[in-house]
Amino acid sequence: MYRSWLIVFGTTLLLWSLVGQLNHYLAPCGAFLSVGGLLVTFAALRLDLRRGLTATILIALAVDAVEPVPQFDRHLIYGPNLLLFTAAHVLAFHLRTRFPRDETLFGLVTALLANLGIFLGLSFIYIELGAHPVAGTAWLRLFADLGWSQLFILLVAPWYLALQKRALELGRVDLAAQHPRFF
Amino acid sequence: MSFKRFDQAKPFVTLGGIVLAWLLLPVAVKSFLRTTFFELQAPVGVTASYVRDLQEYWTERAHSKNELIEAARELQHVYSSYEFQAQQTGALQAEISRLEQLLRLPPNPNYKFEPARVCRRDMSAWWQQLTIRKGKNYSLPVGAPVVYSGGVVGRVREVRAYEADVDLVSSPRMRLAADFDDDTRPVSYQGGDNPPLRPARGIVEFVPPDIITHPSNPRRLVTSGLGEFPRGLTIGYVTRLEVSADGLFQNGEVSLDPRLSELTEVTVLVPLRPE
User: Long-range pairs for B46-49 at CB < 8 Å and ≥24 separation?
Assistant: First the structure.
């Protein structure tokens, strides 16, 4: 019962750790990868609502744990990624029945759009919270980081979605048996 | 029909419930969850850091004995000059202590130097931080200044059991009291100008109008001694100044050392209590 969301959470944690190491090596180059959309895609498209949201909430908490907590007027605002990840997950879940959600191409498009939405959402949140003294000067850096991130997702998403599917097969999780209503 | 409508609305109702639950959750629980999930991931970063150290060690071992002997000889020259400077510094500090007692002045803050390896760099447009491999286990305090051979690195923002987060001087959160190398009038330094694929920059504000600088002859910006940083540490070099909107002062651009984004080891200045 626990295996599906636990396996998906484990694979997303693996990707998040790898991206963290990649950002460590990209720091001298002035680039930063943001892959929130890819972290929620598989759970939103392939798992049922409860298990998918569980995996998404856990990985969102892991992402929030590493990033600095935004501050507004001496109040710490916890969990911006949690709110955006769950919103992206719910939106993808709601729309998935209209599209071939088992297709890799659709998963790739979902990851790209979700990442764009999460990136813009976080940017709006940080601007509203005054996280940058002159937010207007950061647009070029934000634009560049978004470009690198989308390119990274374009290259990695097919492999990563296949990895997650394979991980579930190795964990003997049959998605069709778990929620036959959607298959 | 109503079941189908509820079925479609169920994800959004669930989202609303999660948002509400998160907003109502006590801050202590959120903080605990944050710490828990950080410690869950911490071994990955620390392990990768130790693997990099091991990689560096084996790279050094690949050097021939003659190369190592030559490097040791060069370091010996540097070490000798630093030893002489340390003796001079000791004599000057003794003189300062004698004058402080004579004039009954409050003592300058003293620090314990705590070197720490960097295990993770995290540099986006919204934050610029390092995670170092020392934390409460070495009694690092929040707000302690962090330095390196080139000057100011930043300030300790958060301390955990075995690691600590350092806000870099290029971070938008960083604001320092500063002055120019040869001018004691205070100015303000603010981090945050981080262009893509280029070294980070900072912003200097409230510069007196009679100060002139040029890209070919930049002026060194140093800490003023106000706040937690000792006086005279290099922040960066001011390459360009322009009159501010109110016309009273100048604002400008501060070039930061490119090595800030490549640091592998830093030193935390832990304030010592005055005797």
Answer: B46/B119, B46/B133, B46/B162, B46/B163, B48/A21, B48/A24, B48/B119, B48/B120, B49/B117, B49/B118, B49/B119, B49/B120, B49/B133
